[in-house]
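Hi, here's the filled form for the chain we discussed.

Project: internal
Contact: R.S.
Residues: 336
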Amino acid sequence: MIPGTKKEEWLAAALYGELTVEERAQFEALLAKDARLREEFSQLQSLCAAIPVHEIPFQGDLTGAVMEELRRGPAPRFRFNWSHLGFAGMALLVIGAVAVQFMPQTVVEVTPGAVAAVDLNGQTQNALAQSAEEAAKGNFSTAREILESGLQNEHDPAEQGRFQLALADLEYGHGERYAEAHAAYEALREKHFDLFSSDPVTVQRFEVLSECASLGFGPLYALDAARNGVTDPLPALENLVATHPEKKIAILAILAMEETVQSELPEAHSHVAALQAVRERCANANARARLDLALGEAHWSESRDKAQAEKAFQQAIAGGNPTIVRLAQEKMAALQ
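And the returned structure, exactly as it came back:
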C-alpha cells in the first residue's frame, strides 16, 4: 500500500510523467490491484487532459549559466535501455548512471524534453477526456470508439499521435486485449516514432508485448492472474520466473513477488532484503538461480559490494541453467 502522502506524490508525478521506471512499474502494479486508486487516477487524467497548456516564452538571459555548464563538461543524455533492465534483475530499479556499466546492448536514446508540450486543440482535449471518463466508468467499447473516431477524423500528426498513444494505453490497460495493445503500440512506433521513443514506459510495454506475442501473450495473462487472484501469488509468479528466466516478463514477475513479500514483511524494505525474502520462499532451482542473478545486480547497484555481487553471481552459475549461467558470467565479467 502507498502511504497517504506518498500516494498524492505518486499520483502527481504519474500525471506529469515524472515517475522513474521503477516507480512507474510499482505504481501500475498498485493500479491493477486498487479499483479506487484507478478511478482517482483516471479522473485526474481527465481533468488534466481538459486543461489547455500554453507555454510562456522565457525572456531572461541564461548565457552565463550555460557557459558555466559547458566549462564543466558535456551534458549527460538520458539513456533508456530495456534490455539492460531486463537482465539487471532488480525489477526496473537500476537506471541512470549506476546502470551505465551494464549497457553493452542496443539502447534507445531519449533526449530529455523530447516530448515538448503539445497545445492540442479543444476538440482533441475533449475527446481524450471523454474517453478517459468512459474508461473509468468501465465503458471500454465507448472509450475505444471515441479514440478510433478521433484517429480517423484528425489530420494533424501531433494530434493523431496522442490519439494513437491513448488507444494503445487503453488496450493495454484492458487486461484481455494484449494483441490489440501490441498492434496499437506498433502503429505508434511506426507512425509517431518520436512520441513512442520519448517515453520509457511506452517502449517498455511494447517490448514486453513483442516478447510475449509468440507465446500468445500467455505470460502476461498469467502475471495478471497471479496479481489479481485471491490466493497466494508467489507460486504462479515463481513459475513465470523459472519458465522465462531470460525474458523481460521475469522482471515484472520478480517485482510482483517483491511487492507481495514487502506487504507481508515490512522489514524487507530494501531491494536486497526483499529479494532475499523472495528467494527463501522459492523452491524451483531455476527461479532461485534467477533471483541470485538479481541479488548480484542489487548488491552492486545499491552498495557497490563487489564481493557479495560476485558471490550471488557464482550461486546463479551453480544453478546450472544455461541461460542464467551465460547472463551471470556476463555480469561477472562486467564487474572486473
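Let me know if anything looks off before we file it.
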